[in-house]
Write a structure and sequence with these properties.
Order of helices and strands: HHHHHHHHH
Distance between the termini: 43 Å
Largest sheet: none
Helix content: 55-70%
Strand content: under 5%
Number of strands: 0
CATH topology of one domain: Tetracycline Repressor, domain 2
CATH class of one domain: Mainly Alpha
Number of helices: 9
CATH architecture of one domain: Orthogonal Bundle
Structural class: mainly alpha
Amino acid sequence: MTKPPSRSELSHERIVEAAARAIRRSGYAGTGVASVMKEAGLTHGGFYAHFKSRDALLAEAVSRAGQANAGRLERKVEALAREGVSPLRVLVESYLSDEHLEALETGCVVSALLSEMPRQAPEVREASARRVLGLVERVRVALPPGADPASAALITAAMVGGLQIARAIGTGAEAKAMLKSIREGLLAQYDTTTHA
C-alpha cells in the first residue's frame, strides 16, 4: 500500500505547481519567491525548508511544467491515433491552436521562456535545455515513417516561433490567422500520412 504524502510533500507540490504557472505567466525574471509562496498559500519564510535557492525552484518548476504539458499531449496523441489521425497532425494542430495561444499559465514552457533560457543559472539552463530537447524529440517521434529526422528541429522551431510571434500580436483574429497559416504549411509539407 502506498503511503499518503506528508504535509511537507504536499506543500512542496503546491509550491512547484504555483511556480510552474508563474514562470509561464511571468517568465523567469518575473517569478519571485514571495509571490510563488503566496500563490501556494504558504508563508515566505517556509521556502528554504523546500528549496536551497530560487534557482532550484525554477529548475524544478520548468521540469514540472514541461512534464505536465508532455503528458497531456501524449494522451491526446494516443486518443486521436485510435481514430486514424497522425501523431504529427495532433502535435502541430494542438501546439498551434487558438486554445494554446491563450493558455499562458498552462501552455508550453518552451515557448513561454525560450528567450530567457540562455541567461539563467546553470541548473535552470540545464533543466530548460532538457525541455527544448524533449520537444524536438516529441516532434521527431511524431514524424511519419520515412521522414527525415532532421526535420524535427525545423518543425519545432516553426511551432515555437509561430506561437511566440502570434502571442506577441495578441489573441485576436490576426494572431489566429497566423497560427492557422503556419499549421497548414507545416502539415502540407510534413504530414504525408492519410487522415481520418
